[in-house]
Amino acid sequence: MLEKFSRRTFAKLAGLASLGLGTTAAKVEEAHAQAVAPKLAPGSFPSGFIWGTATSAYQVEGAVKEDGRGPSIWDTFSHQPGHIADGTSADRANDHYHLYKEDVGLIKDLGVKAYRFSIAWPRVFPEGTGTPNPRGLDFYNRLIDELLANGIEPYATLYHWDLPQALQDRVGGWQSSETSKAFADYSAYVAERITDRVKTLFTLNEVGRFLNFGYGWAIDAPGLKLPPKQLNQARHNVALAHGLSVQAIRAHGRAGTRVGPAENIAACVPAIDTPENVRAAEIATRELNAGFLDVILEGKYTEHFLEYAGANAPTFTADELKIIGERNDFVGLNIYAPQFYVEATDKVPGFSVLPFPNSFPHMNSEWLRIGPETAYWVPRLAAKVWNIDTIYITENGTSSVDQVTPDGKIYDLDRIMFLRNYLTQLQRCIAEGVPVRGYFLWSLMDNFEWIFGFEKRFGLYHVDFDTLVRKPKLSVDFYRNVVARNAVDV
Ligand code: BG6
User: Fold this and answer.
1) Considering Cα of 147, then 149, then 153, then 158, what sign does the dihedral take?
2) Nearest atom (ligand 1) to Cα of 368
3) How many structural domains are present in the chain?
């Protein structure tokens, strides 16, 4: 059943939908200031480039009933039979809640100076709204202090899918704009208390995933299959939550706090690099991200999106669009598989999506097609289409089988191959002047991979989920070397 609803299926459905778009192509501005390309030695990244790694709360923390934490939709969902491939939940996961000091040590050993983690809303507001639970935020205060004491800058995400169950029960979660408002209150509360030490906040992680998978196709929590109109409305509520959160952070955080999204942008790549196809990929980037990234960056839905959705378009007001379009300080992009190889066509809106042959290679995760050029094209196209001046790669990485060999080591050469190639393409893009300022490798350590349970391993550090022992894989040496040299082998 899990196979049936893979990300590959999602990409295919979305691709077909895009082909059905039938109106005049929206105009993407032609004129773009020519970015000044930094002078970089082959393989080198600019000085001051931020190297980091990332995790999320539900995937690593465990301690789901400790210190007043309320249940999240993922606690409920993972405990229902048939949802998680190996029948597990993240009740204990990596027990990072108790082992965080050891984990900060692992980050330090990589030599990186930045760590992206997420805050669990149900620890801070167990009921989603109302009375806060100070013991919940205390954990993050301890973590932040430990990071800073070790010279690692904390980057916090406010929402990485663990919606308080109480909000789902009371108002239908993201089906209601009450949840958008509750998210703003939660954002304000957290911003007030941590922005003395945390300078960068991400609002929501991967709307494109959690909304469609959770509310559209019943793959992720909360396991709903909403009809298109309601799904579009829920996505609109999430966009509103983003805008309200940006406002709340500006109003309640310290001056200078920076805020933006961390989105799994629909990754468009020109099938063959011709000027026509590049232009088509720009149009595709805008149109295939119309439901979230585009509306938050432009403050309006594209004509095609509204026309294609027709009666299923979300209901919204001009005031809401204004909030949704609040200025972001940067854009975070999660980059994994190439999703859409496109080419130019005379047919409006000006691009067509090519079908993938069955033989297209993928990594250990079936959905993770190998396309290193994604790390070149996606930031380049995003910067051009939305005129972005600061991009972070908020996630990139791969799963691997990660056998422990008789000598006790883990030679994850496939992960190293993947990272080397993606980083080479990222460097190419930066060398051409695309403003990518940092890179957060997913993930610091193996963890609870949502519907795959503990079967898929994305970590630089191997975790034995019986003993909780963390052990560096060969890729730790690889990444440490990249970070120390501020360069990738070419
Ligand atoms: C990203 C998520 O989509 O990819 C992470 O932000 C996740 O939380 C990672 O762990 C891998 O995804 P999956 O579906 O293979 O667990």
Assistant:
1) positive
2) 15
3) 1
β-strand 200-205 against 153-159: which pairing, if any?
A: parallel
Residue 466 covered by a domain: yes
Residues 153, 287, 373, 395: which is the catalytic one? Answer: 395
Verify whether residue 206 is a known catalytic residue.
yes
Residues of the chain with pLDDT under 50: 1-35
- DSSP string covering 68-124: GPPPBHHHHHHHSTTSSTTS--SSSTT-HHHHHHHHHHHHHHHT-SEEEEE--HHHH
Cβ(279)–Cβ(344) below 8 Å? yes
Alpha carbon distance 206, 335 (integer Å): 11
Ordered alpha helix ranges (H), 222-355: 228-252, 275-287, 295-298, 303-309, 318-324
Residue 424 exposure: Cα atoms within 13 Å on the Cβ side: 11
Which of 458, 460, 463 has the most ligand 1 atoms within 8 A of CB, as the residue to mutate? 458
Q: Which domain holds residue 431?
A: 2-485
Asked whether residue 162 is assigned to any structural domain, the reply reads yes
* CA pair distance 225, 388, nearest whole angstrom: 34
* SS3 of residue 293 by DSSP: helix
478 Cα–ligand 1 center, Å = 22
Choose, from 153, 206, 287, 449, the residue flagged as catalytic. 206
Phi-psi region of 248 (alpha: psi -120 to 50; beta: other; left: phi over 0): alpha
In a domain, 399, yes or no: yes
Specify the pLDDT at position 449: 98
CA distance 102 to 96: 9
Residue 61: phi and psi, rounded to 5, are -70, -45
- Whether the CB-CB separation of 103 and 117 falls below 8 Å is answered with no
User: Domain containing 103 — which CATH number?
Assistant: 3.20.20.80
Catalytic, 320? Answer no
The two three-digit tokens of residue 247, written as one number: 């406002």
Question: Is 490 domain-assigned?
Answer: no
Residues recorded for the chain? 490
Whole-angstrom distance, CA of residue 446 vs CA of residue 452: 12
Residue 8's pLDDT is 40
The pair of structure tokens assigned to 471 is: 């052990």
